[in-house]
Amino acid sequence: MYTYKLTLSYIGTAFCGWQIQPNSPTIQEKLQDALKILLKTSTKVIGSGRTDAGVHAIAQVAHFNTEQKLDIYTCKKALNSLLPKEIRITDICLVDDTFHALKSACAKMYVYHLHLGSPLPFLEPFVYSVPKLDIPLLEKSAKYFIGTHDFTTFTNKPCKNKDHTRTLYALDVVQQNSLVSLHFLGNGFLYKMVRNITGTLLAIQQGKLTVEDIPQLFEKKDRTHAPMPANAKGLFLKQVFYDEIPTKISSNELKMDTFSLFSNTLTKASC
Fold first, then answer.
1. pLDDT, greater one: 161 or 117
2. Which domains does the chain have, with CATH numbers?
3. Which of the residues 33, 52, 97, 134 is marked catalytic?
């Protein structure tokens, strides 16, 4: 049995998230359909995590097992020809059979894009537009989420017997002209956690909450006390880490905007 690791990029607008759902198009479904044609047998694809409906990915990671030894170059070309144009395989590699896209991951990075001003048609599928932002206040608010916390208040599906403790190593605010990006780096993320944190940061911007309310929200451990989540369209899964746990986001990562990364990704997908 061979294990293959996939790195893929996708625009999530047209999909109902990662996980297969009845009568709804999903990323996992499209990948498995393409592999079934290629391998002539059903194969399950395991992702590093389940992105929600409308959420995008620059470098999602997945794996699948097969009894066939594959030519990497041919397989990549074939899959990209079978997949919808919104999904691109950027890399395929043979890995040790102990590799698991979900269980082997030690950290993830997400980025949420905010656009200052009126919505722009070509940016609209990838950003959430707001009239203005107080950047110093945004940076001050973000610091409250860094560290190890019980994030029960910031997940939409809390489970009584589940540990909702996660460590957020960094939450950096980067402004590039009218684009403001929130970079989240953590050892794991709960369901809608990034969007719920972003929604809280925006509520503070709107004067609905204060910075001082954040510790109380953590203490409540109740989702109903927190604001609505931010829109899915501004969120991107940027990177999944396996070899070592980074504790901060590199300056190069912060300088590289998502649209430059998209350009690099398209180049990889075409090779």
1. 117
2. 2-95 (3.30.70.580), 107-253 (3.30.70.660)
3. 52
